[in-house]
Amino acid sequence: MDAGLIYQNAKIKSKESELFGKDKIQRLADALSAEEAVRILQEGGYPLGNDPVEVLAQAEAEAALFFKSTVVSGYGLELFLLINDYHNAKVLAKKTYFSGKTDCLKPDGLLDKGKIEEGIEKDDFSSLPSNMAVAFTDIKKHFVDETLTPSYIDITMDKAMFCAIYADLPKAHPVVREYFTRLSDYTNIAVACRAKKAGLPLSIFENMVVKTGELPLPVLKKIFDLGAEESVEKVSGLGAYKKALLAMKEGAAHYETYVDDALLAPIKKARFDMFSPAAVIGFYLGKMREIKNVRLLFAKVNNGVDRDVIKVRMRELYV
């Protein structure tokens, strides 16, 4: 019995009431101005401030810090923080090599963003984790050879991230292993469909595949050959991933929403097991999805984005 995990689960249970339910989300959806929406957020415990962008960025940072405080060793919880690190690595690489923007940086995961940026600026990646360092070395080589593209940065960093995760995944709790195995497969399905749509050759697609999921390469190659729509009817061995392809048929936005909801579902189901890290993971993911929903609702309020467009992108709530 892990007293540390039981304590963290109890702490999480006391905070679940802070997450937004349908009533608060509906109030935000009905807000007539950004000022009214910010007031609703602050009533719900969000940071003080008048700028919605800053308020939500601070809320994300606070959620990440709280999650770090609940990470108990031996379950693989730290793997969820790697997602932020590799996302930030992609953003900072694009900033350096393509004058990209940094307004979509995530809170620090296991690494300080400044450490990643310093490594890029100095062309010295020795202080970074080995998988990330190898990825940056490869990216820099392509930049020098004038063959680097933003998509190559994404592919290279994604593959490095999954390699880093896969190295520790066998020691993780089953609920964590299931999450990242599914994430690998969903990533590969998206890669196959994007590569098909872009008309890329098979060799390029095969190099884009992350090799840490359950869907075998022959199945992924069939999806690449046929595309999402035909694959639903003609590809065997898809199992539960058939629903993912059905979502992909509706477009990338539908697919991204489906994946987020599908990944959270088994964690949400196990959240009442006090001997599982599901409650700790679920609270963190639930808060991040809540913030994502709030951003979408601010887009509706500020920019007049059509309600139906927003509805497609809204994630299921955790509570």
How would you portray this structure in words?
The chain has 319 residues and is mainly alpha-helical. It has a domain at 1-75 and 284-319: Topoisomerase I, Chain A, domain 4, CATH 1.10.132. 70% of the residues lie in helices and 0% in strands. The longest helix is centred in the last third of the chain and has 26 residues, at 278-303. The radius of gyration is 20 Å and the shape is globular.
Strand content: under 5%
Overall geometry = globular
Q: So, CATH architecture of the domain at 1-75 and 284-319?
A: Orthogonal Bundle
**Total DSSP helices:** 15
Unreliable parts: none
Straight-line N-to-C gap: 27 Å
The quaternary organization reads as single chain
How many strand units?
0
Derived from helix and strand composition plus strand pairing, the structural class reads mainly alpha
Q: CATH superfamily of the domain at 1-75 and 284-319, please?
A: ATP synthase (C/AC39) subunit, domain 3
Please name the CATH topology of the domain at 1-75 and 284-319: Topoisomerase I, Chain A, domain 4
User: What's the order of the H and E elements?
Assistant: HHHHHHHHHHHHHHH
Helix content: over 70%
Quick check: average pLDDT?
92
Report the radius of gyration as a whole number of Å: 20 Å
What's the gist of this structure?
With 319 residues, the protein is mainly alpha-helical. Helices cover 70% and strands 0% of the residues. It has a domain at 1-75 and 284-319: Orthogonal Bundle (Topoisomerase I, Chain A, domain 4).
Helices and strands, with pairings:
Elements: H1 3-15, H2 22-30, H3 34-43, H4 52-70, H5 79-98, H6 113-122, H7 130-144, H8 150-168, H9 174-198, H10 202-208, H11 217-234, H12 242-249, H13 252-269, H14 278-303, H15 307-313
Helix pairs in contact: 2-3, 4-14, 5-6, 5-7, 5-8, 7-8, 9-11, 9-13, 11-12, 12-13, 13-14
